[in-house]
Amino acid sequence: MVPEGWGECRLGEVTEFQRGFDLPKSQRQVGEIPIISSAGYSGWHSTAKVERAGIVTGRYGSIGDVFLVYEDHWPLNTTLWVKDFHGNHIQWAYHLLQTIDYAKFSDKTGVPGINRNDIHRIKVRVPPLPEQRKIAEILGTWDRAIEVAEAQLAAAKTQKRSLMQQLLTGKRRFSEFEGQPWKEVRLGDVGQVITGSTPSTKNEHYYGGPIPFVSPADLDGRTLIYSAQKTLTHEGMSVSRTVPKGATLFSCIGYIGKVGLAGVDLVTNQQINAVVPNSSVDSEYLFYALSAIGPKVKLLAGHNVVPIVNKSEFSLQRITLPPLREQKKIAASLGIADVEVAIFSTNIENLRTEKNALMQQLLTGKRRVSI
């Protein structure tokens, strides 16, 4: 039921879209006009095609993201931009457009794409302009809270990177360890390197059990890896190379340099090398040391279609190794920094979840605002 005082119409009568404009890189000129692609801000140009604030969303390639642009801009031909708001409030329209499932309107080709005529036909509910302003004001408050949290997260990540660079190179020492020598070692000298494998996918008895079967997709920024998208049975584990709890996982094929620390005994596919630490190295210190050398290892793969660093090359990579007690203190300090990053990340997720729930209520009229 349409809320009292609201109207219902097609989206094209609220926000009328137009396809963006081609602008090859060879024709771009130095300037201060932002170029907006389906992925967002993508460069600068000297002139604008849209001389006002506006809304842009992906038309081809990357779809689903909606960008509110507060200045003159050039929307690329991979986008749709709002040509006419038909008197509606721009920030209310921005939030409304974020609720649309654009993937439903994507054609069936290999590259995602949407047709503006299809989304123009979507039925939407439209409150009076004063209520639009109030809704935009409320949701804008949530957006600002998310922006603050994102800035805090970025600062925490920067601080952690700086701390890693100082602690893992010895530029910053704890006073009780001053003067104690460090050494440089190969990965193969501080642990056993295990290259993963994939059990036969033809044997259904190998899959679907309690054992995490880790691929690079599961190395998603978490430190400790307890679960994976795919799992193995104990039978599947028995024909694979088991990686024990405490080993550091490092992707060496495709997405090189992604890391994780095994939180339980698990199995990895062949894209991952695991380093099982010996008694000379702390498992958490090894995790951070491998995190730090990821960019350097990535260079070894060159420009192959599928980047690969083999086990032998990986085993020869070097890390710096302080005394064991200092390793543990370094790892503990970086662990505290990780906790801070995780807190800010969780805060952002919670804010976004709460905002999305509020959007669904406010933009459908299930929850009304006082004017």
**What is the fourth-level CATH superfamily of the largest domain?**
DNA methylase specificity domains
Write down the overall geometry. elongated
Percent of residues in beta strands: 15-25%
Q: Looking across the biggest beta sheet, what order are the strands in? A: 11-19-16-17-13
Q: How many E strands?
A: 20
At the first level of CATH, what is the class of the largest domain? Alpha Beta
The ordered H/E elements are EEEEEEEEHHEHEHEEEEHEEEEEHHEH
Structural class per helix/strand content? alpha+beta
Major β-sheet profile: 5 strands, mixed
Helix content range: 25-40%
What is the quaternary state of this protein?
single chain
- Which architecture of the largest domain does the CATH hierarchy give at level 2? Alpha-Beta Complex
Task: Put the structure in a nutshell.
The protein is an alpha+beta fold and 371 residues long. It has three domains: 7-126, Adenine-n6-DNA-methyltransferase TaqI, Chain A, domain 2; 134-170 and 327-371, Helix Hairpins; 183-321, Alpha-Beta Complex (Adenine-n6-DNA-methyltransferase TaqI, Chain A, domain 2).
